[in-house]
Amino acid sequence: MEQPLRNVRSNIVQSIRAFTVKDLQAAAEALGHHFLYANLATALNKQDILELISTQFQLPPHNGKNLDALYDCLTDTVFKSGPQTGFVVVLEHIPTSPKFDKEAREQLLDVFRDVADFWAERKVPFRCFYSFSVARAPKPADLEQTDEPLLTDKLVDVSPQALRMSSPFNAGYWLSAA
């Protein structure tokens, strides 16, 4: 890797896109930058995410486990520890669940955008790459805690006629069934 991340602005938060985690780690090493990685695949909500980031980034124990404290740890605390060469951050599998909706995801990414701005003012590269998790089926333990029927619980009739009725182009089947 001759010029790692040469086509990526030095202070940015962006989708991981064509990069792999291994490539980003190698780029950080080649540039002499800190590599911070958090796999958020097991997170279900904001507290889970903050806990995983805190643990995997090895943030100080006094981290308040909120977005403001995360910002403080990634800016002031690190800045006060001495000169920094740069950062490559990866947030992999940010959840896309009802408990961590689009607004919550944007709030999290805004913290990293603010951190990128903080380091840009100090002429220190801070590149953050993220990916979203794909929707996954709930675990059996999660299903036991809810009385809500699943969509698949409502599907009772799987006869050929019922399947044809599901097509909007077979209105005749709908009329004959009524």
TrEMBL record:
Domain Barstar (barnase inhibitor): residue ranges: 34-130
Official protein name in the record: Barstar (Barnase inhibitor)
Organism annotation: Tepidimonas alkaliphilus
Family membership: Belongs to the barstar family.
